[in-house]
Amino acid sequence: MKKILLALLTAVLFTAGASAADKQIKAGFIYVGPVGDAGWTYAHDQGRLEMEKLPYVEKSTYIESVPEGADATRIITGLAKKGHNLIFTTSFGYMDPTIEVAKRNKDIIFMHCSGYKTAENVGTYFGRMYQPRYLSGVVAGKMTKSNAIGYVAAFPIPEVIRGINAFTLGVKSVNPAATVKVVWTHTWFDPGKEREAAESVLDAGADVITMHQDTPAPLQAAEKRGAYAIGYNVEMKKFAPKAYLTSPVWNWAALYKVVAEQVSKGTWKSEQIWWGMEHGLVDLAPLSDLVPADVKKIVEERKTAVKNGTTKVFTGPIKDQSGKIVVPAGKTMTDAEMLSMNFFVEGVQGSPK
After folding, report:
1. 3-state DSSP call for residue 238?
2. pLDDT, tens only, 232-263
3. pTM exceeds 0.85, yes or no
4. Are domains 2-127+252-279 and 130-247+285-349 of this chain identical in fold?
5. For the residues of 147-167, what is the DSSP string, one character each?
């Protein structure tokens, strides 16, 4: 009888200990745009909702449309004071505010999206979006008839420049005669400016456009003009079904669930995460019926090669806009070189500044 009681007591203690080891997560998210932007912030929020389903995530909250700057510091501090033990800040401009608040809250884990500064309780995360960008460039290069492709871009920072270059390398790999014209809006979320920028490249003769923006406005401008369009962030077919070809997309749940588990289990450590298509964090949305079967076959073959590492997007020879070799034949750019990219490759029209 004593042995039975002892066994039961041991089982109860073990179960209680296992439950106690899984710390309950209260996660906070800071968004740069509204959750209804149908793009960047919407994609992050979908990831949050998936993470929230985990048994050890007690709750998650978000604050949307937070300006990058002093306001961000105040709002991140507010989340810290309200008992959140895991805070995600989801835009590049939140980097310094995140570091500042983290210094005063050592017991909270912070994860900053797309930045490069870390601390003992701060990690960074991003995805190798340049991989599906390259694939979308293959689509654009095959679909253009005018050999003029437009790119509506947000800010001239390495993240955006890297995407433009990857897209252009994809275009040129199947259509050496095509060029990519870049127009900067200097905004992340401004449907009016995005639409105007798209119209400007359409006026210049582009019959395919793509973007690094947070709304589907450029796609809608393309549809109105009878052009093709490639979205970003999420599958955007419903916004411009007569123009839509595909989208490089984010699946933030693939990362958010892993980070939440690490924090809950006590295995989290500060690191700089930069996952690619092999982790499922980034992908290319299914190609629409506007894309011919032979093009779909090429893209699928390239996608397999990118995922298994056979094809590395930034492998030389790569020339810059002046025709100078910047990546010699056989050499692949390092992560550090890609993360600090500040030049445009041959075939891009516009300035990277």
Report:
1. helix
2. 999 999 999 999 999 999 999 999 999 999 99
3. yes
4. yes
5. SEEEEEES--SHHHHHHHHHH
